[in-house]
Design brief:
CATH superfamily: Endonuclease/exonuclease/phosphatase
CATH topology: Deoxyribonuclease I, Chain A
Radius of gyration: 19 Å
Helix content: 10-25%
Structural class: alpha+beta
Number of domains: 1
Distance between the termini: 37 Å
Strand content: 25-35%
Largest sheet: 7 strands, mixed
Strand order of the largest sheet: 5-6-7-8-13-10-9
Order of helices and strands: HEHEHEEEEEHEHEEEEEHEEEEEE
Number of helices: 6
CATH class: Alpha Beta
Number of strands: 19
Shape: globular
């Protein structure tokens, strides 16, 4: 399996022109979300808490390690798309535009002309969300960074929610929200209010879209730091597990069924959890002009995990084990939305 994956990645790198950029109705297309875990550049930003990921920091983060990580992440993105690299990928835990430019221009992704949509967030560590996209397949028409603030705590800072609206395959308009909600660091109960806050802000923005565009095609992707069953998603965002027969602007959590999988999107000690999710409007999966939804899935290729000697089973293969650098990727597994074209 390892040799097959490495062979596939080498093929993707060496013969990109063998993939036609012509839009084909029978081809399978992919949207992706990936928490890339600490894709920091090497420069010290005096305005953020990024000292750990600098040459003099605890992790001895340097140019070579930065580029190696970017290269490995790029190969994950290409492998996830099979023979047709993702139309777009939402990313989180990226430190700014420089890291994104290295990822898209100095790795195998450069062969696919990925463009970047990004804005610096107020997060204290300096990590952001972003969207990279293939301009021949997706054409942005508007984007905005939505501030997640706390009226009761002016000092609270977290990642913005990125909203990108654009034309897919010269056929249909999509409204994409890229999320990285406040973490559980500091305790589940102590931080739950902040994720509910983010959910309320996201829900308000979705309602604005539905008020403006009848039957809007909405995709919410991200690391929500809650599972589909937690209150922020099931109650505040009101994301249902399955779509009913009547189209009425419900948000459907395509990731709910992953809760019963043995491998989910990240692992905490003994248990896997579903924090990375796709939540979409029912119009997108039932009434889109050009999308025929195929599947939402976790990309759990064998090369992305390693044996978990402490807690059993396997775990995501990270860039660091403690402070030891290894040939890893992220503490999260990527997630995918696969579709084909219809009425095109």
């Amino acid at each position: 399996m390892k040799h097959f994956v490495l062979g596939l990645l080498l093929f993707l790198l060496l013969v990109p022109n063998s993939f036609s950029q012509e839009i084909k109705r029978n081809d399978e297309y992919t949207f992706m979300f990936y928490n890339v875990e600490n894709l920091f550049d090497c420069e010290n930003d005096s305005l953020t808490q990024d000292d750990e990921f600098t040459p003099d920091g605890d992790r001895r983060w340097n140019f070579s390690r930065f580029h190696e990580k970017a290269d490995r992440l790029a190969k994950v993105i290409l492998a996830a798309g099979k023979w047709n690299p993702p139309v777009f990928a939402g990313l989180c835990e990226v430190e700014g535009l420089q890291a994104l430019e290295v990822l898209t221009k100095q790795t195998p992704l450069r062969n696919y002309n990925y463009k970047i949509i990004h804005k610096d967030s107020p997060d204290e560590r300096g990590i952001d969300v972003a969207l990279i996209y293939r301009p021949e397949l997706f054409v942005p028409i508007d984007y905005q960074a939505i501030l997640v603030s706390d009226p009761l705590n002016p000092e609270f800072k977290t990642r913005d929610i990125l909203l990108v609206s654009g034309i897919l395959n010269n056929c249909d308009t999509l409204h994409i929200f890229v999320n990285h909600w406040p973490s559980r660091y500091g305790g589940l109960m102590e931080t739950i209010r902040y994720r509910k806050l983010a959910a309320g802000i996201l829900m308000n923005e979705i309602h604005k879209l539905f008020d403006k565009y009848t039957k809007a095609n909405v995709i919410c992707m991200g690391d929500f730091n809650d599972t589909p069953e937690d209150e922020s998603l099931s109650v505040v965002l009101n994301a249902v597990k399955t779509n009913n027969s009547e189209l009425k602007g419900e948000m459907v959590n395509l990731s709910s069924e992953w809760m019963s999988r043995s491998l989910q999107t990240l692992k905490n000690l003994y248990s896997w959890q579903v924090f990375d999710q796709f939540i979409v409007s029912d119009y997108l999966i039932e009434n889109s002009k050009c999308i025929k939804f195929q599947a939402a899935e976790i990309f759990d290729a064998a090369f992305l995990v390693e044996p978990d000697k402490k807690y059993g089973g396997v775990k995501p293969k990270r860039t660091y084990v403690g402070f030891k650098f290894q040939e890893g990727f992220s503490d999260h597994l990527p997630i995918l939305f696969r579709y084909k074209l219809v009425n095109y």
